[in-house]
Amino acid sequence: MKGTSLRKLGLALAGPVLAILVAFVVTSIVLLLAGDPVVAVWTQLLTAPRPRLVVAIINGASVYYLSAIAVAIGFRMNLFNIGVDGQYRVAAFAAAVFAGQGWLPGWLNIFVSLLIAMLAGGLWAGIAGWLKVTRGVSEVISTIMLNAIATGLVSYFLFQVADSTTGSNVTNTKLLPTASRVPGFALIPGTPNKVYGFVLLSMLVGVAYWVVLNKTRFGFDLRATGRSETAAVASGVDVKRMVLIAMLLSGATAGLVGMPLLFGQDFSYGTTFQPGLGFAGIAIALLGRNNPIGIAFGALLWSYLEQQSNGLQITVGVSSELVFIIQGVIVLAVVIAYEVVRRAGLRMEQHSVARQLSDQPDFPTAEGLPV
Amino acid sequence: MANKDVTFSARRGTVHAIVGENGAGKSTLMKILYGAQRADEGTISVDGAVLSLHSPSDAIDAGIGMVFQHFMLADNLTVLENVVLGAEKRHGIADRARAEIERISAEYGLNVHPDDLVADLGVGIRQRVEILKVLYRGAKILILDEPTAVLVPQEVDELFDNLRELKSEGLTVIFISHKLDEVLSLADSITVMRRGITVSTVDPKSVTARQLAELMVGSELPSPSTEESTVTDRPVLTISDLTLAGAGGPDVVKDVSLTIRAGEVLGIAGVEGNGQAELVEAIMGMRDPSAGRILLEDTDISDWHTREIREAGVGYIPEDRQRHALLLGAPLWENVMLGHQTQKPNVRGIWVDAAGAKAATERIAAEYDVRTPSILVTAHSLSGGNQQKLIVGREMSHSPRVLIAAHPTRGVDVGAQAAIWEQIKKARREGLAVLLISADLDELVGLSDTIRVILRGQLSGEFDPDVVTAEDLGAAMTGAG
Fold it and tell me: Which of A100, A155, A260, B295 is disulfide-compatible with A174, CB 3.0–4.6 A?
């Protein structure tokens, strides 16, 4: 079946490549209409990033990756967890408050803080899961609401616990003890900046995601529910339980999103903590097609575009918000492209099955059956 | 290639039947005629004019209309709204359209009322709404894809009367089926397809059902022989006073009691929607009974979960294979795991045993004659008959004690049907207890040791399949008896 797997790979790549091409064309048209220098913009965006930016790209991607995996867990079960954004902020805040106290020594403090983040994120998502299971509330609605509540709640408590000794007008939690900061790796030569140590955490989560979904009974049940809830029920899956577990897992993973930032860069949770990571996760999960490798590429692309666009304003005088247009078009195009490619793949498979069957010389007929 | 050198012509004012096994290419041919798929070679002409059909709207412009096997009606809309949907330009959406619907209904004796809510309509009348929809769009050639699969005998007769009416008005009907007796009674000419090729076109007056079947399968048929009873006195599945409350309405299943012994096939006949589906779902643990008990041998399984019931050895062939028995987008070997994803050889501990499941799938594909080039293709790419053989094979592979089989051969061709029947008979000889629910009376009579009829959620007394007539059963099914 070598031909089949090659074809599958080709089809899998066709979607994103098509989407990126469309984004390229659409963005160029927008630039032309606005009278901006098309070539200069693409030159800026497509020149090889400097070492400092490479580090920033990898760091950004490691955070996006976690967010996208959290969303993908829900997607695999037809759950649309829009609440990753609220979940990671609640979780990062809880973990930051705990870790800042320094009750536990060094790495133990980090480890327990991670657990607290997962617990907080999981519980926050669990509210939506519980509402869906017991009351039939769509998780789309409840997670959006919970995002808003999370924003309010975290701001309120942040003010309560704010560390007033910093003396600046930025409100944040107590800084982590030095022993509980995760050291970075000096991976990229030519810059003093380091790659987050928690890049490893992202990789670990990616591997765990793949193993659990594809290699375990639980993953089979989850995927079956995503493909066809009715068939899953008939096969003995307790769908309500699966919804709850999937939301808890998605939320727990969302809880990890802020961790590379907390332990590798900010060392506290404050009003400047990076927002909007949850929504980027949705886009990247779509782009990466819920596939752990695909998502890694998606996260890198997202981060790359963001870092490369920073210089646009200075070098060519075009607002760096242009990158949002590119990202938006990519997501829109990718959703359409995947559907087109999916249908084409289905047709190709049906054709090839029919062709291979008609090429076979003789079928065993009814009499040939074991009786 | 799904179709190869297909040639046939249908005359105006006739019913032209196309028969063939599932996977013989009938559906592909229909898609081509309806413009949903393009042919690589060859031509289609209507009244001598060669057509190029790029889309269903081209087909309808050429006067070709399609009535699908699965109805495409919106339940929450009225007949009128359903008919005008997508054809608003023809006669508007109000009084002009209503008058036109009434005219068509009267002209062809369809007895369709424009202001009825589709949700309130039975299967037979829904089908007539589908036909009317096509006529409303100006079709002169109607293609019907296995229209009788969902109908009870009385409704089939009504449909045939309607079709004869259409034909006498000068319309052409292309009728796809694999129910040979129906084809023989209705069609003016029959084209047989086999593996994508039109084998021959025959005159129904000069062939027997058996000859036709042999043309379809391409060889002589195994003759179904009556068998010795294998019924033992060991009850395997006992249901007592089972009641299921309806959603706000009357009970959908009421005081049902039955016993199936090892080696026994208990057949349940009934017009669809009389509680069969609910009864099956209650046995499988997908619905909670409001009263009554279900015993598997001596164990009360009434409040067990579906998974426990399946693990305890209850095999399940659901009525709607696409919705309940398959993951269409998943490869065949994952489909073989479905429903048995906690059992060997599919899993080892908490881990999926892909090698074990794939080996089991290879074996099932070979033993049950599932025609596929590979076990890695998706279930979607198989024909209905092959999907069903895969499901039967999967359920039988776990040596069930009880098999709950709902319409096990619905929409399945003659060859696959014979194979599935043979598997059920074989398992019965080995002591399997089978609950068989079917709309096909021949199937019920041929396989069952005992037949009971379900009407409005209640079971009738027992019928002996050796002596019961279709009229007796029909009377019990409609409550006329």
Answer: A100
